[in-house]
Sequence to fold (144 residues):
Amino acid sequence: MWGRPILMEGGNLMNAIEKEKIRYFRGEGLGYKAIASRLALSVDAVKGFCRRNNLDGEAAENADNACRQCGAALVKSGARQKKFCSDLCRSAWWSAHAYLYNHKNENERVCMYCGRVFNSFQSKGRKYCGRPCYIAARFGGERP
Fold:
Protein backbone atom coordinates (compact mmCIF):
# COMPACT_ATOMS: atom_id res chain seq x y z
CA MET A 1 0.00 0.00 0.00
CA TRP A 2 2.83 2.40 -0.76
CA GLY A 3 1.14 4.06 -3.68
CA ARG A 4 2.56 6.81 -5.78
CA PRO A 5 3.99 9.83 -3.94
CA ILE A 6 2.06 13.05 -4.39
CA LEU A 7 4.05 16.08 -5.49
CA MET A 8 3.20 19.59 -4.40
CA GLU A 9 3.90 22.80 -6.33
CA GLY A 10 7.53 23.07 -5.25
CA GLY A 11 8.21 19.41 -6.04
CA ASN A 12 7.96 18.39 -2.36
CA LEU A 13 6.09 15.28 -1.26
CA MET A 14 2.76 15.56 0.53
CA ASN A 15 3.17 14.22 4.06
CA ALA A 16 0.74 12.20 6.21
CA ILE A 17 -0.39 15.24 8.20
CA GLU A 18 -1.38 17.09 5.04
CA LYS A 19 -3.26 14.02 3.80
CA GLU A 20 -5.16 13.83 7.09
CA LYS A 21 -5.95 17.54 6.90
CA ILE A 22 -7.31 17.08 3.36
CA ARG A 23 -9.54 14.25 4.60
CA TYR A 24 -10.70 16.42 7.50
CA PHE A 25 -11.42 19.53 5.40
CA ARG A 26 -13.14 17.42 2.73
CA GLY A 27 -15.35 15.95 5.44
CA GLU A 28 -16.15 19.50 6.54
CA GLY A 29 -17.44 20.16 3.03
CA LEU A 30 -14.62 22.40 1.76
CA GLY A 31 -13.84 22.41 -1.94
CA TYR A 32 -10.54 21.65 -3.64
CA LYS A 33 -9.56 25.31 -4.07
CA ALA A 34 -10.27 26.20 -0.42
CA ILE A 35 -8.28 23.21 0.83
CA ALA A 36 -5.40 23.97 -1.51
CA SER A 37 -5.15 27.57 -0.34
CA ARG A 38 -5.28 26.59 3.36
CA LEU A 39 -2.54 23.98 2.98
CA ALA A 40 -0.44 25.82 0.36
CA LEU A 41 -0.84 22.96 -2.14
CA SER A 42 -1.81 23.00 -5.77
CA VAL A 43 -5.47 22.47 -6.59
CA ASP A 44 -4.52 19.54 -8.83
CA ALA A 45 -2.65 17.80 -6.01
CA VAL A 46 -5.66 18.10 -3.70
CA LYS A 47 -8.07 17.05 -6.42
CA GLY A 48 -5.95 14.04 -7.36
CA PHE A 49 -5.60 12.92 -3.76
CA CYS A 50 -9.35 13.25 -3.19
CA ARG A 51 -10.19 11.27 -6.32
CA ARG A 52 -7.74 8.47 -5.45
CA ASN A 53 -9.19 8.22 -1.94
CA ASN A 54 -12.89 8.48 -2.88
CA LEU A 55 -13.25 11.91 -1.29
CA ASP A 56 -14.92 13.51 -4.28
CA GLY A 57 -18.62 13.82 -5.01
CA GLU A 58 -20.97 11.73 -2.86
CA ALA A 59 -18.21 10.30 -0.71
CA ALA A 60 -17.43 13.76 0.65
CA GLU A 61 -21.11 14.49 1.23
CA ASN A 62 -21.67 11.25 3.16
CA ALA A 63 -18.47 11.47 5.21
CA ASP A 64 -20.22 12.86 8.29
CA ASN A 65 -22.82 10.12 8.77
CA ALA A 66 -20.75 8.42 11.48
CA CYS A 67 -18.95 9.54 14.63
CA ARG A 68 -15.34 10.39 13.79
CA GLN A 69 -14.05 8.65 16.91
CA CYS A 70 -16.09 5.47 17.38
CA GLY A 71 -17.97 5.17 14.07
CA ALA A 72 -21.46 5.16 15.63
CA ALA A 73 -24.28 6.29 13.36
CA LEU A 74 -25.24 9.95 13.78
CA VAL A 75 -28.74 11.38 13.52
CA LYS A 76 -29.17 14.94 12.34
CA SER A 77 -30.93 16.82 15.13
CA GLY A 78 -30.67 20.44 14.04
CA ALA A 79 -29.42 22.72 11.31
CA ARG A 80 -25.87 21.33 11.48
CA GLN A 81 -24.80 17.73 11.08
CA LYS A 82 -23.12 16.35 14.20
CA LYS A 83 -19.55 15.09 13.93
CA PHE A 84 -19.35 13.16 17.21
CA CYS A 85 -21.85 11.05 19.13
CA SER A 86 -20.79 12.42 22.54
CA ASP A 87 -18.49 14.89 24.29
CA LEU A 88 -16.28 11.96 25.31
CA CYS A 89 -15.72 10.97 21.67
CA ARG A 90 -15.16 14.61 20.64
CA SER A 91 -12.56 15.12 23.35
CA ALA A 92 -10.77 11.84 22.55
CA TRP A 93 -10.67 12.60 18.81
CA TRP A 94 -9.26 16.12 19.27
CA SER A 95 -6.68 14.82 21.75
CA ALA A 96 -5.50 12.31 19.15
CA HIS A 97 -5.60 14.88 16.31
CA ALA A 98 -4.10 17.89 18.09
CA TYR A 99 -1.94 18.67 15.03
CA LEU A 100 -5.10 19.83 13.22
CA TYR A 101 -5.51 22.77 15.61
CA ASN A 102 -4.91 26.19 14.15
CA HIS A 103 -1.73 27.13 16.01
CA LYS A 104 -1.39 30.54 14.36
CA ASN A 105 -3.08 32.21 17.32
CA GLU A 106 -0.99 30.44 19.95
CA ASN A 107 0.44 32.79 22.56
CA GLU A 108 2.92 31.81 25.26
CA ARG A 109 1.87 33.40 28.54
CA VAL A 110 2.98 33.47 32.18
CA CYS A 111 0.26 32.97 34.80
CA MET A 112 -0.06 36.10 36.94
CA TYR A 113 -0.84 34.00 40.02
CA CYS A 114 1.38 30.90 40.01
CA GLY A 115 4.06 31.96 37.49
CA ARG A 116 3.72 28.89 35.25
CA VAL A 117 4.22 29.23 31.50
CA PHE A 118 1.17 28.17 29.44
CA ASN A 119 0.02 28.39 25.84
CA SER A 120 -3.14 30.34 25.15
CA PHE A 121 -5.08 29.48 22.00
CA GLN A 122 -7.91 31.77 23.03
CA SER A 123 -7.67 35.47 23.76
CA LYS A 124 -4.46 37.46 23.91
CA GLY A 125 -5.62 39.02 27.18
CA ARG A 126 -5.68 35.77 29.12
CA LYS A 127 -3.90 36.24 32.48
CA TYR A 128 -4.23 32.94 34.32
CA CYS A 129 -3.29 29.37 33.39
CA GLY A 130 -6.63 28.01 34.56
CA ARG A 131 -9.72 28.50 36.64
CA PRO A 132 -8.12 27.49 39.98
CA CYS A 133 -5.51 30.26 39.66
CA TYR A 134 -8.16 32.80 38.66
CA ILE A 135 -10.35 31.91 41.66
CA ALA A 136 -7.38 31.98 44.06
CA ALA A 137 -6.23 35.37 42.74
CA ARG A 138 -9.70 36.88 42.78
CA PHE A 139 -10.95 35.59 46.13
CA GLY A 140 -7.68 34.76 47.93
CA GLY A 141 -6.36 31.35 48.75
CA GLU A 142 -3.31 29.13 48.56
CA ARG A 143 -1.28 28.75 45.42
CA PRO A 144 -1.98 25.50 43.54
The longest strand covers residues 107-110. The chain has a mean pLDDT of 78. Residues 16-77+87-99 form one domain.
